[in-house]
Amino acid sequence: MRALPQPGRPINTTQLTQRLNQLGIRPNQARSTALFQLATEIPAAVLARALGIHTDVAVSWQRLSAGDWTAYAAEISQRATRSFQQGKDVRDLR
Q: What whole-number distance in Å separates Cα of residue 60 and Cα of residue 64?
């Protein structure tokens, strides 16, 4: 028999997740999306302290969510070098 919610008593995480899933809401996906969005907006040190996670984890989240800008810059630099060596105009590579 299924227990009915009682006013004034908190619902546990499992029950809440089941109820949301029945409504078509996926709380784990929403949570991940919210955390990754947050990672794009604040520095890793602030994110780590606010969420109680290690700074390395916060940095990883930022790389996954916003892309690794250092890798992007390196790729652009390599494109320019390769095109210069091949005699192409960099503007033609865009």
A: 6
Q: Is 18 left (phi over 0), alpha (psi -120 to 50) or beta?
A: alpha
| Model pLDDT for residues 24-76, shown as the tens digit of each residue | 988 888 888 888 888 888 888 999 999 999 999 998 888 888 655 556 566 76
What pTM does this model have? 0.49
> Which CA distances in Å does 13 have to 3, 18, 30?
15, 9, 15
Minimal CA–CA distance to 49: which of 62, 58, 37, 41? 58
Q: Where are the domains of the chain?
A: 13-93
Q: At what angle do helices 27-41 and 55-66 cross, to 10 degrees?
A: 90
Please state, in angstroms and as integers, the Cα–Cα distance from residue 52 to each residue in 37, 45, 49, 55, 71, following that order: 17, 10, 5, 9, 28
In this structure, how many other beta carbons lie within 10 angstroms of the beta carbon of residue 77? 10
